[in-house]
Amino acid sequence: MKKLKFKKIYVLCPIGVKTGGPELLHQLVYQLNNIFGEDSAVIAYFGNIKKQEPVSEYNKYIASKWIETKDIKDERENLIIFPETALSQFNDYKYIHKYIWWLSVDNFLLTSSIKSSAHSVGWMHTIARWLKGNIRNYSKEIQAADAHLCQSYYSEKFLENMGISKNKIKWLSDYINDLYVQDSDEAMKQKKENIVLFNPKKGFKFTKKIISMSKSENWKWIPLIGLKNTEVKKLLSSSKVYIDFGNHPGKDRFPREAAILGCCIITGQRGAAKYQQDIPIDNKYKFSDKVEEIPDIIKIIRKCMDDYSNESLNFEEYREIIKKEKNTFKNSVNKIFNEE
After folding, report:
1. Whole-number Å distance between alpha carbons of 20 and 181
2. Which domain of life is it from (predicted)?
3. Whether residue 28 is found in the same domain as residue 138
4. Where would you tag: which of 19, 114, 207, 313 has the fewest CB atoms within 10 A of its CB?
5. Which conformational region is residue 63 in: left (phi greater than 0), alpha (psi within -120 to 50 degrees), or beta?
């Protein structure tokens, strides 16, 4: 059994939230306990504990074992991992080691007092104003953290631009649910339909314009919303194209879930999507979300529909990377938290 460099690791998580970020926080606890022994790590929930219930689908990671943040032992031999949206609790603890895990750059900006500045002048100028102390923010807490964990290359560049030293930045990405990976080879053999899938929660205003300008095409557009994981998997396995022109606050899961099940991926260039390290697909599948780009977007969708067997081959390398992500994650956890 590997030896953990801390007596106990507490991973903070909002209670009752079913999205990629909270699932990843639970996956980390699961891997820590697998690698370093049972009870090495525990989820510490915050939020309305009396009214909210933990997400039942996360029981496979933590077996219903969790605590409230008030039960954290603030001792030097322990560690707290804060998701970037929980920094308001950073100063509640005096002695414990503190890591920040950057799952979403954009969500941090939206939940901090930086929001109005970032909206008006962009985040690069906002960082400059932030470092000068002209904006109320969490810069002291961020500088005081013992280490920063990065889920995406986008977050790594964000931290470097903030002046965080490289020796404090550690790579800890993620992996998608096994449900999507385990039958991926069979999904690739399945007959695909002329369906374009999209997430209506992101970039829908622009997506609607693409739909409107492609009415002459014989394509079916289906939003991925209000579905169980098994239903999402079924749609991804039978469709040819997934598009995503929303913000990419980190290395998003939907593009990877779609790619591993055989979809051709077409994205915008916002956030993490502009980096090859986060979405490693050919640049011909990446577009800025401008109206003048829509004819070319429709053209590449048509190419994927009409010549799917060849176009899908361009995503093989991406699929191989996705298949290896779980092992990469395990290796990163071992490297970061092993005492040796």
Report:
1. 16
2. Bacteria
3. yes
4. 313
5. left
Q: Work out the angle at residue 68's Cα, subtended by the Cα atoms of residues 141 and 138, and round it to the nearest 5 degrees.
A: 15
- Segments of the chain with pLDDT less than 70: 110-123, 125-126, 129-136
What is the total count of domains within the chain?
Answer: 2
- Which residue, among 75, 123, 120, has the nearest Cα to 97 in the 3D structure? 75
Is the domain of 203 the same as that of 164?
A: no
- Domain contains 335: no
Residue type, 130: W
In CATH, what number is assigned to the domain containing residue 248? 3.40.50.2000
The pLDDT, as a whole number, for residue 139 is 85
Domain region containing 64: 8-175
Asked whether residue 330 is assigned to any structural domain, the reply reads no
Is there a single domain that holds both residue 195 and residue 159? Answer: no
Helical axes 294-306 vs 204-213, angle rounded to 10°: 70
In a domain, 198, yes or no: yes
Q: With contact defined as beta carbons under 8 Å apart, do 232 and 208 qualify?
A: no
Structure tokens at 147: 């280490």
Q: What is the DSSP letter of 172?
A: -
- Tens digits of residue pLDDT in 203-222: 999 999 999 999 999 999 99
Which strands form 169-171's sheet, in the order they lie side by side?
66-68, 41-46, 8-14, 78-83, 97-102, 147-150, 169-171
CATH of the domain at 39: 3.40.50
Local structure of residue 291 (DSSP, 8 states) = G
CB 281 within 8 A of CB 258: no
Residue 112 lies in a domain: yes
Helices and strands (H, E) in the chain, number of each type: 15, 11
Task: Look up residue 246 and give its two tokens.
Answer: 């929303």
Contact (Cβ atoms closer than 8 angstroms) between residue 237 and residue 207: no
Of the candidates 152, 175, 198, which is a domain's last residue? 175
